[in-house]
Amino acid sequence: MTSVQVRGRAERVLAMLDERGLEQMMVSDRSNIRWLTGFSGSAGVLIVSKRGHQFITDSRYTDQARDQLDSSGATDIGVVTARTLADRNLAISEAASGSPLGAEASIVPQSEWSSLSAHAELVAADGLLGQLRRAKDESEIALIAKAANIASETLSEVAPMLVAGVSEREIRDELEYRMRKLGADGPSYETIVASGPTNAALPHARPTARQFEGGDTVVIDVGALVDGYHSDMTRTFVVGGPSDEQQRWYDLVLASQTAGLQAVSEGVCGSEVDRACRSVFEDAGLVDLFVHGTGHGVGLDIHEEPFLGASASAELMAGDVVTVEPGLYRVGTGGIRIEDLVVVTSDGHRNLTTHPKDTPCPPSPRTI
Ligand code: ZN
Ligand code: ZN
Fold it and tell me: Residue 255 above 70 pLDDT?
């Protein structure tokens, strides 16, 4: 697979900087650097400047940086090796050449901000890359779709194992091992397998040694990582099949999620998607049990712009990749969440999550 091509992205940053009266910016966030250069290592800063772009890294990463910038088409970005912190600060100040330098104030540690301020006039320029990274191109969507397919396929393999006596951690381990086997670089985030009356009632529970019992709701939130791109999916099962109340909750969450998906389209405000999901629970008198936001963008970061919640103000744009993930949670009953990952289009969305969601019954265990 050819790598994502980044040519032209630094010029788009310059155009946005120009609107803020800046000629240059220091990019420190790893995902932002990867989006602009293709570099996947952990050390380095990128100077995007009208006077020429430079990626400043240390000698451990020089060869990797040259290779990755070359294969991602970032041929207009020079690679500079800085051996010491003083070298690096000098390189940054030379690149800034006396003009104000935009920087990510929320990323750069205070100590680094202070020491760099002796060399260059730093100006907070946060959020700019997050906006540019929103609309994904086809090669990015292909990687996210591949990650989503790996997670869906893996869950299909593992779902028949959801029987009494198996633990949350065993299922987590099966999911993560099998995702790697299917070609993922690893899990996209800490896989959630949350079961029973208490654990499943926590939206962000960590897998424990708890063993499933008949009647447990089991919330599985799983994603794969492929070439730096994430996927995100949740399915909920009931061990042995649902009670009447669990089936009613499941039907409500599915109706809520379907309403949210139907609302997704270019030009729609993130808060409208949230409203569509929430109103289904309001009509059922259960809205107090939906205790988190409706969705978020997914790309080089698992949580990125845009965020879909009651106070979201951004309009969706074609190419946004977002989750829609309503849920209901109550200690004693457990939890139900259904989450899909979709690409926003001009007339709706394209769903990247292929795993079925029509029933909370786990498939029957395989027999030989
Ligand atoms: Zn998730
Ligand atoms: Zn999510």
Answer: yes
pLDDT digits (tens, 9 = 90+) for 152-164: 999 999 999 999 9
pLDDT digits (tens, 9 = 90+) for 104-142: 999 999 999 999 998 889 999 999 999 999 999 999 999
Q: What is the pLDDT of residues 14-26, one digit of tens each?
A: 999 999 999 999 9
For ligand 2, the distance from its centroid to the CA atom of residue 325, given in whole angstroms, is 7
CA of 295 to the centre of ligand 2 (A): 6
Inter-residue contact 279 to 255 (CB < 8 Å): no
Q: What is the pLDDT of residue 2?
A: 63
Q: Which domains does the chain have, with CATH numbers?
A: 9-133 (3.40.350.10), 135-351 (3.90.230.10)
Distance of alpha carbon 197 from alpha carbon 200, whole angstroms = 6
- According to DSSP, residue 296 is labeled E
CA of 338 to the centre of ligand 1 (A): 9
